[in-house]
């Protein structure tokens, strides 16, 4: 399966979803966002 072809098909068929996925990939490539854990002990 050729992933480049799949991206092109997605781009042609649903451009909004394609843009959202590409934007998310770029956001994740810039850095990691850590979410503080709520499972900690209170002193």
UniProtKB/TrEMBL annotation:
Keyword field: Methyltransferase, Transferase
Record-linked InterPro entries: PyrdxlP-dep_Trfase
Q: Does the keyword Ribosomal protein apply?
A: no
Identify a single GO molecular function assigned to this protein.
Answer: glycine hydroxymethyltransferase activity
- The superkingdom of the source organism is Bacteria
The keyword Transmembrane helix belongs to this UniProt entry's keyword annotation: no
The top EC class, named as a word, is transferase
Single GO BP term: methylation
Enzyme Commission code(s) on record: 2.1.2.1
Q: What is this protein called?
A: Serine hydroxymethyltransferase
Q: Which organism is it from?
A: Candidatus Portnoybacteria bacterium CG_4_9_14_3_um_filter_44_9
């Amino acid at each position: 399966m050729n992933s480049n072809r799949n991206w092109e098909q997605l781009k042609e068929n649903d451009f909004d979803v394609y843009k959202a996925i590409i934007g998310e990939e770029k956001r994740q490539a810039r850095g990691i966002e850590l979410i503080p854990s709520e499972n900690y002990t209170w002193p």
